[in-house]
Amino acid sequence: MAAEYLFVLLFICSIALAGWKTSNLSSSGAVMAIMIGLAIGYSYGFEGLFILGVFFLSSSIWSRLFKKDKLGIEARLAKTSIRDWQQVLANGGPAAIFAIIFSFTGNEVWTLAFIASISGANADTWASEIGPLSQKMPFSVRSFRRVPKGTSGAISIIGTVAAVLGAALISLASLIMLNDMDSTLFFLLILSGFLGNILDTVLGAFIQLEYKCPVCNLRTESPFHCGHHTERTKGIPFVNNEFVNAMSSLFAGILMLILS
Ligand SMILES: [Zn+2]
């Protein structure tokens, strides 16, 4: 048993180190990834880490691919594709919470919530990495107008399909730990993840912070641009992209608790 935990620890540390080496994680992001990995590895062993790994690896691949097609979008975002601790916590924190509750209660329903929350995180990440490849500008669910790519709260057909596929991949990966998987459960895990992504879009459209740069007039999620503080144009002060991601992933898990 002790040997297995040691392997889990070594495995988590090497994945975090690889993520840091390949600039997918900042050093704070790597430390947070180890903490989340430990919570999930403690509760579910390698099977849980496999599902987390599918999320981490597929998101990292998508953020690398077609990078030149997504140039200009990073200027709108507060963060780069090198994920820091807040981004890692927002995406993996809800799953870690469900995993810890499972380890205390032993009730399988928390495992379903755990998978759904990762399904939601993966749906969000795939939608935001693949959506901007759309030829057309996305459609804001708040103004019903076309807005620049990378705007939070905007949807495109490609992004929506990507969200469904992102959720489906996690549902598929969860076959490794769910012995009683059937088509209904498979569908519910995709549905929860996808609805988590819808919540992400709605919160992104209505309450997420957006600023305007006083120098170049760019609308951005960053509080700084062109060396100046930007001005808030909409949103609630603490509601940044990480907050919205965490809420959506948490919601996907809670929805699965209710549905199952
Ligand atoms: Zn500017």
Topology at a glance:
Blueprint: H1 2-21, H2 27-64, H3 85-105, H4 109-130, E1 139-140, E2 154-155, H5 157-173, H6 183-206, E3 210-212, E4 219-220, E5 224-225, E6 228-229, E7 231-234, H7 241-259
Antiparallel strand pairs: 1-2, 3-4, 3-7, 5-6
Helix pairs in contact: 1-2, 2-3, 2-4, 3-4, 3-7, 4-5, 4-6, 4-7, 5-6, 6-7
The structure holds zinc ion.
Residues 213, 215-216, 218, 225-226 line the site of zinc ion.
Characterize the structure shown.
The protein is mainly α and 260 residues long. The chain has one domain. The chain contains seven helices and seven strands; from the N terminus they run ααααββααβββββα. The strands form three sheets. A three-stranded antiparallel sheet has the order 4-3-7, with no helix packed on it. A hairpin with a 6-residue loop joins β3 (210-212) and β4 (219-220). The mean pLDDT is 92. Bound molecules: zinc ion. Residues 213, 215-216, 218, 225-226 line the site of zinc ion.
For the largest sheet, list the strands in their spatial order: 4-3-7
Shape: globular
Helix amount, in percent? Answer: 55-70%
Structural domain tally? 1
Task: Give start-end ranges of low-pLDDT stretches.
Answer: none
Number of strands: 7
Q: Supply the helix-strand structural class.
A: mainly alpha
